[in-house]
Design goal:
By secondary structure, the protein is mainly beta. It has two domains: about 35-70; about 100-365, Beta-galactosidase, Chain A, domain 5 (Distorted Sandwich). It is built from five helices and 22 strands. The strands form five sheets. The protein has a nine-stranded antiparallel sheet, with no helix packed on it. Strands 1-9-20-19-16-11-12 form a seven-stranded antiparallel sheet, with no helix packed on it. A two-stranded antiparallel ribbon has the order 2-3. It is globular and about 70 Å long. It starts with a helix and ends with a strand.
């Protein structure tokens, strides 16, 4: 898909109209995964290297094995131009910072739990976007047949007594990832949490802009954003129109092309039907990524845009990202007040919350 997008960009750059471009008459689905090399295999292979070359080639093989085992091609999803670092091996001199997620964030899709804003929750110090995004998950294959593949994953945050479990399923003939999740409070007390899915998109998917289709009914811009923003944060608006900083109404469904004026923005979409959904299309509405979820749990869709707007840390003017993230709660300026007013998701002692989500790729090129 990434190759197809780059090809379409090239045809556009050289002035070839869509109707005149070569037609794809046949396509093949290639399932690929990052290269994973067992340590015993790697050691055995290095022992057979030619004398005099073993040290250099062995070091190169170690680097390739490490990098390829961490990530493959993410296609539509955001992939920042940075390496994926292991926090146990690559670290800053000052480690007790509240925003380590930004040190290690490389794009893609992260599960966020049990908070967003860093701070203390009932004596537990929590960093930005919680703990789950940086934890390893245990896993077990539940089903592996030509018709269906299913895997279960689970993990626990270190400082809040929660168990998060998910089952990922793909089915023959469907370009959809089925996600069934359970969140369990394993403690003897009620807990107030934030839960989100940080799904970010980037280039070349959105080089020429994009379009959002969703059943949200309202949009409201976050107040605590920098001045070089796009939306006015004075009140809630009826989706998809919202006032811009210059007082002109903006149709927020349309994402400007990459070369447009830089800005940083965060807004919240809400007022969904129970079965909430969005589809993010490329500028020609031929390739899209669709997400469906239960709005009784994830009531808000965060609409985050970092388009070369932040000139200082952590992005240094080089990050282009558009994220559409189902969340239980809006970003709180004061978590304590937000909890007291019932804005967080409350999960009772020993209780479990179940959620279903579906993510699909849409291809209208044929």
């Amino acid at each position: 898909m990434a190759v197809w997008l780059r090809g379409q960009r090239y045809w556009k750059d050289v002035g070839v109209k869509p109707i005149e471009r070569p037609t794809i008459t046949r396509s093949n689905l290639i399932c690929a995964e990052p290269l994973v090399i067992e340590q015993e295999q790697l050691t055995a292979y290095k022992s057979k290297l030619p004398v005099g070359q073993s040290n250099l080639l062995a070091e190169l093989l170690n680097i390739i094995a490490e990098k390829m085992s961490l990530a493959g091609e993410m296609g539509i999803l955001l992939k920042l131009e940075k390496d994926i670092h292991n926090p146990r091996e690559v670290m800053s001199q000052i480690r007790d910072t509240p925003n380590q997620l930004e040190d290690y964030y490389y794009g893609g899709w992260q599960e966020i739990l049990p908070n967003s804003l860093s701070g203390a929750y009932r004596g537990a110090m929590l960093g930005q976007h919680g703990e789950v995004w940086m934890l390893p998950w245990k896993h077990a294959i539940l089903k592996d047949t030509p018709e269906e593949v299913s895997i279960k994953l689970w993990t626990r945050p270190l400082r809040v007594p929660l168990l998060i479990e998910k089952i990922l399923t793909i089915k023959k003939g469907a370009a959809t990832l089925f996600i069934d999740e359970k969140l369990t409070n394993e403690s003897a007390v009620d807990l107030d949490i934030m839960w989100g899915h940080h799904i970010a998109f980037g280039l070349p998917f959105l080089t020429d802009g994009g379009f959002i289709d969703t059943n949200a009914t309202t949009i409201e811009a976050e107040k605590s954003m920098p001045e070089n923003r796009r939306f006015k944060s004075d009140r809630s608006y009826e989706w998809p129109k919202i006032s811009g900083v210059d007082d002109e109404l903006i149709d927020a469904r349309f994402i400007p092309a990459e070369h447009a004026k830089p800005y940083s923005e965060l807004a919240y979409l809400s007022g969904f039907e129970k079965e909430a959904y969005y589809t993010l299309f490329d500028s020609e509405k031929k390739i899209g990524f669709s997400v469906e979820w239960d709005s009784d749990i994830f009531k808000y869709l965060w609409y985050w845009q970092e388009r070369y707007g932040t000139q200082d840390a952590p992005w240094w003017g080089s990050a282009y990202a558009v994220a559409l993230e189902p969340w239980t709660t809006k970003h709180p300026s004061d978590p304590g007040k937000a909890i007291a007013s019932g804005q967080y998701l409350r999960i009772g002692s020993r209780a479990t919350i179940a959620s279903e989500m579906r993510a699909s790729v849409i291809d209208k090129t044929h």
